[in-house]
Design a protein that fits this description.
The structure is a single chain. This protein has 533 residues and is mainly beta. It folds into three domains: 189 residues, Cupredoxins -  blue copper proteins (Immunoglobulin-like); 159 residues, Immunoglobulin-like; 154 residues, Immunoglobulin-like (Sandwich), CATH 2.60.40. Strands 12-11-10-14-19-16-17 form a seven-stranded mixed sheet, with no helix packed on it. Strands 23-22-25-30-27-28 form a six-stranded mixed sheet. It is globular.
Length: 533
């Protein structure tokens, strides 16, 4: 029956698929791809439900396009374009002069319908990073749709206010599709946040950090062979909201910066160039209980940061720069010599964006001393207090694994089977690189690197971080920049570190992914799934 459906669909869509292939800009010839979409079984696309009455209804189309990024010739990209069919006028906010998809703004409790249409020359599927939705609506790779097909998402916003985002989750092609431009921010609002009267409108600025490389014709360059796949792609230009040399003109008042690391693999160490502290009011899963001041903040791919930036004491014409400050230990020792030769080495010191005070303002929001209520998850309430669920990271040449196995559908290990509506203790740790257990080992020490581990489904809380096996000199360059007090969905696990988290597995049964958000590693198979039963 399935084979018959495939034959019928492919016959009906043959001309559409061919047209989509022609639409792929010739500029993509400069993009040196590895891998590609494939290797995952397909399930028939999902259609709209007759009994689902959405508060927001939109179409989201992914298609080849062009964007003016560098001076001169336009760059070939792939992008998301959206149109609102039903819902509040502020649901979609395009970012100016960018390839990024529009900012989607939702309210907690809203029912959302999104009709994804694939105008690309290869399969794709979209994931709503950080949102708590059923498996069918989560962007699981098995639901990738072919060129010309559509997939209808229907879900309720259950998350608290926070910054989330959407991007492809196509098996073996997530890295390349995101790199070509397919990503966008999601902002969820709720009544608790509204009561705080935080900066909004023009005083709330989304900041999407990405790195890219270009050839002489301004076309995207991607590749680097085994080395790039092992370490993760590192570009030589930092783009903010899809633009180089990003600068923001502000008034002398408080702003809210909503920062997303949308890079494939680059880790940033955010720090103001005048050594002002960074005031953090929220992380992946929304607001903290109270503001935290940090000398710098580590931000790995997939992580988000909510920053209170008060420029009220600065004179008109003054400038402050957000930089990525120096750090060490995030990349494999055996690769650091090669990486130091790149324009923007991992752990280097370089600017991200600048802020110029362009006008005086006599009005400003006040930083609330208390932000939000967070019900702390307690170790005594977990279902497995003495037997944490393992997420063991292992690294070897061309073999990035979790729990000693590459990704495969319907391949859940016994410890990856989770009873629904339970609270689980999870431990994420480095397994030595060659299955050698707790110690780093010679090869593990050479290969070991930092990994941002992302868990789909509900947000989690960090219980503890220990660095008994870490190099103390390297760890000291990053450790003050970790924030462990809020709700998270992505956590950076550095070499030799063990991180314990408490994660709810509530409401929905099915297969929910956990993987490295270094997208090259994800595509290499550093991804598993929990079978919530």
């Amino acid at each position: 029956m399935r084979r018959k459906m495939d034959l019928i669909r492919r016959s009906l869509l043959a001309r559409i698929g061919a047209a989509a292939g022609v639409c792929a800009s010739s500029s993509f010839a400069a993009l040196a791809m590895h891998g590609g979409a494939g290797g995952m079984k397909e399930i028939a696309p999902n259609w709209a439900s007759l009994n689902f009455n959405p508060d927001v209804d939109m179409e989201l189309t992914c298609r080849p396009s062009e964007a003016s990024i560098l001076e001169g010739r336009a760059t070939g990209v792939w992008r998301y374009a959206a149109s609102l069919l039903k819902g509040p006028e502020n649901t979609l906010t395009p970012l100016p002069d960018t390839y990024l998809g529009p900012v989607m703004r939702f309210q907690k409790g809203q029912k959302i319908r999104i009709r994804l249409r694939n105008g690309l020359p290869e399969p794709t599927i979209a994931h709503w990073h950080g949102l708590h939705v059923p498996m069918l609506m989560d962007g699981h790779p098995m639901y990738a749709i072919d060129p010309g097909e559509a997939f209808v998402y229907e879900f309720e916003i259950r998350n608290r206010a926070g910054l989330y985002f959407y991007h492809p989750h196509t098996h073996e092609a997530t890295a390349t599709q995101v790199y070509r431009g397919m990503a966008g921010a999601i902002i969820v609002n709720d009544d608790e946040e509204k009561a705080l009267e935080l900066p909004s409108g023009e005083f709330e600025i989304p900041i999407v950090l990405q790195d890219r490389s270009f050839n002489d014709a301004n076309q995207l360059v991607y590749g680097g062979g085994m080395h790039a796949r092992m370490v993760g792609f590192q570009g030589d230009h930092v783009l903010v909201n899809g633009r180089p040399d990003y600068a923001i003109d502000v008034a002398s008042r408080a702003y809210r910066l909503r920062i997303l690391n949308g890079s494939n693999s680059r880790i940033y160490k955010l720090a103001w160039d005048d050594a002002s502290p960074i005031t953090v009011i929220g992380v992946d899963g929304g607001l903290l209980e109270k503001p935290e001041e940090k000398p710098y903040v580590m931000l790995a791919p997939g992580e988000r940061l909510d920053v209170w930036a008060d420029f009220s004491g600065r004179s008109v014409g003054s400038k402050i720069v957000m930089r990525s400050a120096p750090f060490s230990g995030a990349s494999p020792r055996m690769a650091r010599g090669m990486m130091a030769e790149t324009a923007l080495p991992v752990g280097g010191d370089y600017p991200l964006f600048s802020v110029r005070v362009a006008r005086a303002s006599g009005e400003s929001s006040a930083l609330p001393p208390r932000l939000a209520r967070i019900d702390r998850l307690r170790p005594e309430d977990v279902a497995n207090p003495g037997d944490p669920v393992p997420i063991a990271i292992s690294e070897a040449p061309m073999a990035m694994l979790l729990n000693g196995r590459p990704y495969a559908d319907n391949d859940a290990l016994p410890r990856e089977r989770i009873p629904v509506d339970t609270l689980q203790l999870v431990e994420i740790f480095h397994d030595g690189g060659m299955g050698m257990g707790r110690g780093m080992g010679m090869m593990g020490g050479m290969m070991s690197m930092a990994h941002p581990i992302h868990l789909h489904g509900q947000q989690f809380q960090i219980l503890s971080r220990s660095a008994d096996d870490a190099d103390p000199r390297d760890y000291a360059t990053m450790s003050e920049g970790f924030i462990s007090s809020g709700w998270k969905d992505t956590v950076l696990v550095t070499p030799g570190e063990r991180v314990r988290i408490i994660k709810p597995f509530g409401d929905f049964k099915g297969a929910f992914m956990h993987h490295c958000h270094n997208l090259e590693h994800e595509d290499m198979g550093m991804m598993r799934q929990f079978s919530v039963e």
